[in-house]
């Protein structure tokens, strides 16, 4: 049965929650943020005061168990994503979760199965899927603008950890410190992998690639000390899709000129499209396109229908793009329809791709996809 308003509880009140999630929810008049939860009392109190939310809880289960809350938004540290999401689904809540839900795609599939079995909607924080430029490009692709897709190049480019003194929280550990741990491709590569699958519109068949640790010693956020941090701060991958289509993915913490940003280029039989989502010269996104009979790329104007009410490309990208994430999720829930893009099922596909990339690096070989087909 369709509702007319959503009551949202946000678990996690750190930087990303106060920069994009909470203000994004409050931008939509169909939503009320009714409660916040965090184990950090100072961060919790500050967020409550900043956004006028009176109910503050130290135990997230007070929110997941509350029958009057419709949606749980999970903005905790990565290691808590799965635990909180699972508890929310068991409590009958729709769930928005930052990526990754879990570092093992099989656990994400289990969460997707649980949500679907209970008629609940889910959504991953694939922020760049919801950029107006990305959505406009997807519409052009669906209209046949580039003809048959041939090749895609996707870049998740980030310079904020080029300086080893910049505090970094290691995302995933390995048992052996000499074995490179997954970080960039999982924490920052996921959005372009999501777009790659969406735009290529064909089954992924195999992958190969490699990871590098370019800056071995870094400041660790939790200790404030310089430490050996053996993570993939630079990656390159090749992916083969059905129909002979090819894609490449680059993810990095050390690419100058982006803080952070993505660029996706797709080329086809009739034309090509480039979407660049980087804050430059006062704007946060551009889309350029070319046709085979006019090979020069020209910038396109993004129709206003792809923006939230009053939105412009001069807004900070975390607020603009995330407002669209939350508007879309609100539309999906309140409509009562079966539509649910960027959900945990899509998250499982993206995580399985990351797991395949990692396996390709560790085995130094092409890895067939899907992974379930492998012994």
Automatic annotation (TrEMBL):
Domain GFO/IDH/MocA-like oxidoreductase stretches: 136-273
Pfam families noted in UniProt: GFO_IDH_MocA, GFO_IDH_MocA_C3
Keyword Ribonucleoprotein on entry: no
The protein's name in its UniProt record: Gfo/Idh/MocA family oxidoreductase
Coiled-coil regions, chain positions: none
InterPro entries the record matches: Gfo/Idh/MocA-like_OxRdtase_N, Gfo/Idh/MocA_oxidrdct_glycsds, GFO_IDH_MocA-like_dom, NAD(P)-bd_dom_sf
Chain ranges of the Gfo/Idh/MocA-like oxidoreductase N-terminal domain: 6-123
Protein's UniProt keywords contain Protein transport: no
Regions that span the bilayer: none
């Amino acid at each position: 049965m369709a509702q007319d308003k959503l009551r949202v509880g946000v678990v996690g009140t750190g930087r990303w929650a106060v920069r994009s999630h909470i203000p994004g929810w409050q931008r939509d008049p169909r939503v009320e943020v009714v409660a916040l939860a965090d184990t950090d009392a100072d961060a919790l109190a500050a967020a409550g005061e900043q956004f006028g939310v009176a109910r503050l809880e130290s135990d997230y289960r007070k929110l997941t168990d509350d029958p009057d809350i419709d949606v749980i938004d999970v903005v905790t540290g990565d290691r808590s994503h799965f635990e909180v999401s699972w508890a929310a689904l068991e409590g009958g809540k729709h769930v928005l979760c930052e990526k990754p839900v879990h570092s093992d795609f099989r656990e994400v599939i289990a969460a997707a199965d649980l949500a679907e079995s209970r008629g609940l909607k889910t959504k991953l924080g694939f922020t760049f899927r919801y950029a107006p430029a990305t959505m406009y490009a997807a519409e052009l692709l669906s209209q046949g603008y580039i003809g048959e897709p041939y090749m895609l190049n996707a870049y998740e480019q980030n310079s904020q950890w080029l300086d080893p003194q910049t505090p970094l929280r290691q995302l995933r550990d390995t048992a052996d410190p000499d074995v490179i741990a997954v970080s960039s491709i999982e924490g920052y590569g996921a959005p372009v992998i999501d777009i790659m699958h969406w735009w290529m519109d064909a089954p992924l068949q195999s992958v190969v690639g490699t990871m590098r640790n370019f800056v071995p010693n870094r400041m660790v956020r939790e200790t404030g000390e310089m430490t050996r941090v053996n993570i993939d701060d630079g990656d390159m991958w090749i992916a083969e899709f059905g129909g002979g289509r090819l894609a490449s993915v680059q993810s990095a913490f050390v690419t100058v000129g982006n803080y952070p940003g993505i660029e996706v280029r797709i080329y086809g039989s009739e034309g090509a499209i480039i979407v660049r989502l980087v804050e430059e010269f006062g704007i946060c996104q551009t889309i350029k396109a070319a046709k085979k009979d006019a090979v020069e790329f020209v910038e396109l104007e993004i129709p206003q229908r792809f923006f939230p009410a009053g939105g412009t490309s001069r807004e900070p990208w975390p607020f603009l793009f995330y407002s669209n994430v939350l508007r879309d999720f609100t539309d999906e829930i309140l409509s009562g329809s079966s539509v649910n893009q960027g959900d945990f099922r899509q998250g499982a596909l993206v995580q399985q791709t990351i797991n395949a990339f990692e396996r390709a690096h560790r085995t130094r070989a092409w890895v067939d996809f899907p992974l379930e087909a492998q012994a």
